């Protein structure tokens, strides 16, 4: 997932930044005041509050598309994806990552 724009911080997110973002979401839940500013600070100044908010919105959209079956499984020899356990992504997207 990439953010729009032309500044250096708007480039595609690295694997490390995505992991850092996931950790920040666990630290700063939806009830945290100034959540996006806190997450941006957690990212070490590499992303703005707007960028982390947009990245989150894209993440929620992607999860919704996957759960709705609108994203085909890759045909690269990995086989089928494991089933989502009850209370898996639905609860995560609805509670942990909710805005």
Automatic annotation (TrEMBL):
Keywords: Nucleus, Transcription, Transcription regulation. It is found in: Nucleus. Residues 5-60 form the Myb-like domain. It comes from the Eukaryota. One of its GO terms (cellular component) is nucleus. Its main location: nucleus. The keyword Transmembrane does not apply. InterPro entries: Homeodomain-like_sf, RADIALIS-like, SANT/Myb. Pfam families: Myb_DNA-binding. GO terms for molecular function: DNA-binding transcription factor activity. This is Myb-like domain-containing protein. It comes from Miscanthus lutarioriparius.
């Amino acid at each position: 997932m990439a953010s729009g724009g032309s500044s250096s911080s708007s480039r595609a997110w690295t694997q490390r930044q995505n992991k850092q973002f996931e950790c920040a979401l666990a630290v700063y839940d939806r009830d945290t005041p100034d959540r996006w500013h806190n997450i941006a600070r957690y990212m070490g100044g590499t992303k703005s509050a707007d960028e982390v908010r947009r990245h989150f919105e894209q993440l929620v959209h992607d999860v919704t598309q996957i759960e709705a079956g609108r994203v085909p499984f890759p045909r690269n020899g990995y086989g089928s994806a494991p089933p989502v356990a009850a209370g898996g992504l639905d609860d995560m997207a609805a509670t942990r990552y909710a805005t």
